[in-house]
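Example 172.
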Amino acid sequence: MANERKQQKRIDVEYERLDSEAEAGGYHLNPDIEFTKELIEGLLVNEERYGYSSCPCRLASGDKTIDLDIICPCDYRDADVVEYDACYCGLYVSRSVIEGRKKVSKIPERRPPVQARVEPAVTTKTKSQPLPYPIWRCRVCGYLCARNSPPEECPVCRARKERFEMFIRNAP
Ligand code: SF4
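Predicted structure in complex with iron/sulfur cluster:
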C-alpha cells in the first residue's frame, strides 16, 4: 500500500513537471488526465528498466544508442501532432484537441526501420560557405544552433543534449 502511494506520488509529480514544461514550450498534454498518467507511469517504468524514458507505446531494444529516437519526447512527436493532432501514444496533443475541435484517433507509426535510423544525418559543408561553427539540430523539435557543441538542453522543447545531431559541419 505504501509502495502504491509512493508510485502514485511519483506519477503525480512527473505529470506536473511534464505539464508545465509542455505548456511553457507551446505543447499540450492529453487532457484525459487518467490516460495521461498511465502513459507517464509507463515512462517511469521504462526509465527504471532501461535507464532512459523510452516511449511507453513502443518496444525498446534496451540499447540507448538505438532507442535515442524514441526517448520521450520522441523525434516523431512534432510531426505527428501537426499531422494527426497527437503523438503516437497520445501523450501530447494539438491545441485543436485541447479546445475540443478535434479528437485523437489512431496514429500510424512514423518510426523508420532500424537501418534507416542508424545512418548519419550529417550534411557536408559547401565549399563556398565555410562555417566558423558547426550547426546542431534538435532531433525532437528541429531547433538549430551554431556553436562548438550542442546545448545541455534544447531551449524550445527541453530535449537533452544527446538528442542533438550535427546538421552541418563547420570549416576544418
Ligand atoms: S512523445 Fe513520442 S515517446 Fe513520448 S509518449 Fe508520445 S509517441 Fe511516445
